Amino acid sequence: MFNKKAMVTLIGAGLLLQLGFADAHSVSSLDELMKLAAQDGNEITMKPGTYSAKEYLTPQRLAAVGKDVDRSKGGRPPVPVLTFGGNNNVYNLDGVTLEVDTSIYDHLPQFGYHRLLFVSGRGNLIKGLTIRYVGPQQGMNGNALTLWGDDNTLEGVRLFMHGSSPFGYGDLLGKGGGALVKLKKQSGLMIGGDHCTLKRCKVISRAFGHCFYVQGARNTVLEDCYAEGITRATSDMLRDAQGPAFEVGFKSVYENRDGRFAFTPGYRKCLTEDGFRTYSEGGPRKQKTGKTTLINCTAVNTRAGFEIIGPGEGDEMTELHGCTALGCERAYLLIFGKIKTRDCRGDTVHGPLLYLWRGSNADVELEWAGAGSDYAVHALATICGSNHRVKLTRWEAEGPAPRLPILLGYGMPMHAEMSTPILAEMASGIALINETGMPVIQSDLVKE
Fold it and tell me: What letter would DSSP give residue 311?
């Protein structure tokens, strides 16, 4: 006798659909969608249109948010708002927009890390969903979409983010402990489950938070994904006649090159966090983050285009192929080695092309694109650590390049804040191939 439940357990959503074993359902409301999202083995097609999360989240549903969260261990446990808990489902959501009014934050629990759409099930395929934020620019410390379960795939998912506070100063007022102003972030898309794939996904952020980030996940693939933030000149910030920066006298948590903890004119800050970020560990299992592969991904006007930490365990390398970073405070911040880049490029319009920081055995090839800058940029690249191979090139068709040094035997500035001094750090066994025509400045801490 055919056992569908056993079949669902054995094969994933995509193959289940191809074999014709998925139950097909058409829905036209969030109520219908969320009921099916708790089940297994369905193909769910939603009628195109805009659906309001605020209307769905009745007082009764809002009161239930966070009730099942274990708070005994402290910290910031995940607080799901809308949960896709089923396994091996196919969601056909082309033309579907989930509208999120940030005024709902006033009615959510004031603890934990809020995760608007929380995919805790495994083996799901989500296609075509758009999440768009409306309402006041206020935050709640959370993100729009989380892949918590394993073997999930997103295709063509788009997030249009706002809703953090304060907004308009990047990280100059601090974050976490020691912040000068209480910060409520709003991040985009987090991957915590193993073997997850994102294709043609997009995060447009007008909030302080990461666009795409990976925590404790293994074998993650991001292909043809796009992250975009927005920037603001520090000189423009200093003209504010009201607001949080004005109220603290334009103090900053970062020490600048004058020895002052203050906003420094002449720079360009991103008002979001990173376009693509990997953390060293985290996720549902609190494990080390494993190999991540980024293919043809693009970051524009984010704090770091790609802030990537190499795999925490084993001999695998995280790889970037065909990626581009434009208008970022730092195009590529590569940490602790075990990272390989090929056919990747970035500019220095708002900050350095590369910080290669500590660790060992990175294999980095980057092409320097774009023209000069109207803002202070102190280096093309800084390199420290051991046994790295670094090849920096410039395509002559890009035209004349600004004079920016490559700093060998130097780290990144504190917290990678550009107005902070760049200090010497140990570098040994570095194979540097410099085809940019730029000078190399070497510290006393460089060893062969």
Answer: P
Q: In 10 A of CB 9, how many CB atoms?
A: 13
Q: Which residue shows structure tokens 């060893």?
A: 447
- Tens digit of pLDDT for each residue in 194-226? 999 999 999 999 999 999 999 999 999 999 999
Dihedral Cα 198, 85, 190, 12, nearest 10 deg? -30
The pLDDT tens digits for 142-162 are 999 999 999 999 999 999 999
**CA dist., res. 5 & res. 430, Å (int):** 55
Q: Residue 280: its pLDDT value, please?
A: 96
Radius of gyration of the chain (CA): 23
Rounded Cα–Cα distance for residues 24 and 2 (Å) = 18
Backbone angles phi, psi at 61, to 5 degrees: -70, -40
Q: Is 167 helix (H, G, I), strand (E, B) or coil?
A: coil
**Those residues with Cβ within 8 angstroms of residue 305's Cβ, 6 or more apart along the chain or in another chain:** 227, 274, 275, 276, 299, 323, 324, 325, 326, 328, 330, 331, 332, 346
Q: Is residue 414 part of a domain?
A: yes
Nearest-angstrom CA–CA distance, 207 and 160: 10
pTM: 0.95
User: How does DSSP assign 380-433, residue by residue?
Assistant: SEEE-EES-EEEEEE-GGG-------EEETB-PPGGG-TTSPPPB--EES-EEE
How many domains, the chain?
Answer: 1
In a domain, 310, yes or no: no
Q: Where are the alpha helices (DSSP H) in 273-397?
A: none
Mean per-residue pLDDT of the chain: 94
pLDDT attached to residue 15: 59
H-state helical runs in 219-330:
234-237, 244-247
Token pair listed for 345? 């490029």
303 vs 396, residue with greater confidence: 303
pLDDT of residue 149: 98
Determine, yes or no, domain membership for 322.
no
Domain residue limits at 380: 334-448
| Residue 22 scores a pLDDT above 80 | no
Task: Give, in degrees to the nearest 5, the angle at Cα 387 between 314 and 432.
Answer: 135
**For residue 373, pLDDT beyond 70:** yes
Task: Give the pLDDT band (50/70/90) at residue 252.
Answer: very high
Q: Is residue 359 part of a domain?
A: yes
Burial class from Cβ neighbours inside 10 Å (0-12, 13-18, 19+) for residue 389 reads middle
